[in-house]
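Late entry, written up from scratch paper. The run itself happened at the end of the previous shift, but nothing got recorded in the book at the time, so transcribing now.
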Amino acid sequence: MATSDSVYKQKMIFVIFLFLWGSVKCLPQGAPTKVCETMLPNHGGGIPPQTGTALFIVTTLRRQNDIIVTIKSPIEVPFQGFMLQARGTTGKLLGKFEPITPGAHTINCNGTADSLTHSNTDSKTAIDTHWFAPDNFEGTVIFKSTYEGMRNNASESRRRHPTPNWYSPIHQKQIPVTSPRFPPSIIFRKDEEVKDPFYDGCTEMKNCFGAPLGCIATQDCVAAVTVTVKGDRYIFDLKARNSARWVGVGLSTDTKMGNDSVIECVDEGNSISAYMSRTTSRPNLGVIRLNNPKEGIQLLRGDKLNDTIHCQVQRNAVTIVDGVKYDLVNNQYNLLVAAGTGVRDNSVGFHDLTAEPSSTPIYLAEVSEIVGASKLLYRLHGVFMVIAWIGAVSIGTILARYYRKTWVGRTLWGKDIWFSWHRNLMVITWALTVVAFILIFIELKAWSTESNPHAILGIFVTILCFVQPIGAYFRPHPGTAKRPIFNWLHWGGGNAAHILAIITIFFANSLTKAELPTWFDWIMVAYVVFHVAMHLILSIMQCVSDKAEQETNVNVFSMKEINGSRKMNSIVNQDAPYASSRKGLLAVYMTGVVGLVIVLVIVICISPIK
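Output as recorded:
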């Protein structure tokens, strides 16, 4: 009998032990469906709720078809377990979740995937998930969440499934999405704009800078960086869209790339990595990753959603980069933000998406509004080249080719009118080309690193621009044996320069620094079509005019003996036939070209255009 009682007691103790162990260990598979209503941890009691200021927040990013929901701690308190739901004002569960971050999965409470919970008990600092609203839903949705975690406890931390010893209560209050204390409410309305939490606190709590200029205010940057200082911790948030493979921020002592310390955020396929690199000095610009590229920085978070890459990197306040000391506390720096789609071995590719320097150096710990560096010289380069090669050259070549027998007998500055205007327009072209050529080298101080033929074509255009007036100055006199050779060379050189210049302007549209809209090319296409059409019309008219002039000359010679030489002289000093029509077409052509030039100049000056 005693033996039987002893066995019975042992079984009871074993059962009680299993019960107690199962009731206190953190559930690695996540919250069970029986807590769908309460959302409270089911660990058999004894776990106190967290009191005081909320340690966690929920942020949302509205997109076209879903909402990106992020749960995190603004002070980076880790948590092990969580539960997230979306409810309407009546308390009904709404929509469905689709986790983004590993370590989370959905459960079915009242519907399919209408709740989200943890998949393991690993420490977490943030969880991202998609949330899809029900079809045709319009109203208020409240994201509710609870968290559980473990305070520092050496004996518990060594366990495979450590027991949580606190949990956060559910917050019910509906407040705006920007609240740092409670879960947000979202009102669904058609065409509603929801702000990106990445930009929250810019110019108030953290420094923000992005490209293109002005994008921080509109929250639509192609690439951007924010800098938050917490004590001696400098936290850089980097973000880029448009299928960026990398985004980077450089610390520089000026507004030019070269000899800068760079933090790279790189999409490596299965993960996001952060590296330290430096830019080489001019004129041999490039980016070289450091021998120990992760020294001095720590990747806090990295993710990629659709076409957007994002990472958060903590950088030491003082770092040594190739013998140069970067002291973020005591020194001021310009920010250089850039992004690109290409990645090389141990290096990022060219910043083909965007690149922008800040205008002045700042102390990163002092929050202020950061503005971009001036792009005046870039703009002037483009404006001068367009005026020269779309405006002046186009009109000058038309005059030289079709208007030699117009305004006959009339002069301007001692020369035929067509020649005086042709020469003046070519001098304007030469002057504007030279100035534009000098301006761009003053701005860049180096050869362009873009894989774009714009620069090399521009060199050829400038050379031909110099050769043409030199050849014209030494031209043979009319009627000499070498005059036809000059005529062909001058005609060929001028047309080659003009055609190359137009092609070069087309290539400018794809330059990162130009920031031109894609439809800029269509304005150029309109110019080319108009220019070619007018050439065809004037060529046909010239043939008709020459034929009519020949017939007139035959009649003149047949009547020469009767009328004498006075009639012949009057014919020679007259315009070729259809002069009025040619003048009218010239007015149409000049109006069209000047109008297109004005449009192109305006687009260059106000770009980037959204």
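The longest helix spans residues 520-558.
(Scratch paper discarded after transcription.)
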